[in-house]
User: Fold this.
Amino acid sequence: MCGIVGYVGPRDAAPILIQGLRDLEYRGYDSAGIAVMPNTGDEIAIRKREGKIANLEAAVRGGVPLQGGTGIGHTRWATHGRPSDTNAHPHHSCGGDVVVIHNGIVENYAELKAELKAAGHTFASETDTETIAHLVEQQVTEGLTLSEALRHTTARLRGSHAILALNRKEPGVIAGARIGNAGGIVVGFGEGESFLASDLAAVIAHTRDVAFLRDGEFVTVTASGVDCFDQDGRTITPERRVVPLDPVSALKGQYRHFMLKEIMEQPVALSDTIGSLIVVDPPELQLMALGAAAARLKDTKRVVLLGMGTSLHAAMIGRRYFELFAGIPAEVDNASEFRYREPVLDAETLVVTVSQSGETVDVLEAMAIAREAGSAQVTICNVEGAQTTRVADGAVYTRAGMERGVASTKTLLTSIVALYCLALATGKARGHISPQDLAGRIRDLVILPEAVASVLADADVYEQMAPALARFNDFLFLGRGLAYPVAMEGALKLKEISYIHAEGYAAGEMKHGPIALIDREFPTVAIATRHALRSKMVSNIEQVQARGGEVLAIVTEGDTEIPGLVRYTVSIPDVPELLEPIVATVPLQCLSYQIALQRGCDVDQPRNLAKTVTVE
Ligand code: F6R
Assistant:
């Protein structure tokens, strides 16, 4: 959460920082700010505004021009202190010489603040971050360099942090620290200039030559170079890599919203992902990034799948694949619950995490537990080099391209494909799946892009339904088997972008409570496709309608019965059962999108949310 960006070089920092913040706005949009340090050693200038980056831009345009080639910027998702101009980052020390931006939570900020106040420091904001500026200032006043002061300061902070700092007395220098899993710091190596950012989105337009700081690493960047250190100040060599990410996929292009663009990109995202994970003739898997995990698949006796939000729904679908293809017990858990239990893990357990960003704090903490237990780990991720991929023994990458809409769409579909392939690979390594079955399951994947494209070809249907459906304030989503996580995903999409209350339930649960909610004002979306225990779903539909509830049914093309029963129907093509969730999710995404538009919601940046959740 929160996006941070830094630039040092011969160009004016301000426009580069603002563009970088635009690229990171999906991480938080409660407020935004930049600090620019003149090359002359004059005062560091700060501009910050509550609300979206457009407000900051207006403030920068309307004020005294910000000149200087060194600066830092921040887009905030508020934790301590409400969104306001004052609480926006950057924060400065009392003297104004030290300026910091921060992603994370200073868990002991109250005691630090009391100590600093007692020592005469005055605070301008309600944030925990401001304590960092004051602590760094104390150290530089005692003669330490900015980089040393940051190391000493972080030793006093509890929690996880990504921090960038400036010191007026050190023009042309930015110091950074990454402690724990609050968020990454990417260092971008340019020609005579250097970049820092929370993630690649803000760096990729300038350079593909990057390094990711690891937990406990510090960085000092100038225009001419980058130095990395450990907590004790020992120099370390950052692991540089050239990233292949395509910046074009981050542009909205002809679409009104990133979410719509990303929904429409799903056939391509699927075909790129499938093409990277299999060869068709002869059918074979090619999971190139499995690394050390490849050799451990054959000894796997149990699988634990972990994720959050939409990625958890992918994991729920993945569980079935492992049980079926590998013939081993598979469990699925919410990473934030898992990390606070005493989970039973061992070396024969394969832990599979799903995280499109690879930055989600609860997933990373769960992975640390799995590593401690000696379990093999594979992560499903959409960002090459992201944190989860560096902790896991191996990765299965989705090739969805960058996802900018806060609501995940294309990364869900491609994550399900990745799980399917990983489960097949596990089944093959364990000798559980026959070569014929394996070949058939691989071939099945090939039809997916076309099937999803055919659902998207009917996108007008949702536009027509949306006005009538957008008036409801509650929805029930029901599914059985693999359609249960699809129902949960449908409910999640609707609530996050249209702020409508929605419940996703296993349809068998309906009579155990939720049915009490049903009336004319509480419609139901029923996933009643051929493979989703259709006849049982028909009973659910009838029971809902008997209580006056309206039903929208997702059915398989050719179904002539259900459309006659319900008010609204959407048909999807008939695809193999195990792949049906991929196709059945698409109408629910389109429906949520259209309902959110009808209700005038900000689809790409829904209130209170951020794309990457790096704080608890
Ligand atoms: C919902 C959504 C979130 C994410 C969740 C996990 O549309 O996007 O629920 O799925 O925050 O994020 P990742 O996959 O990056 O770990």
The chain has a mean pLDDT of 94.
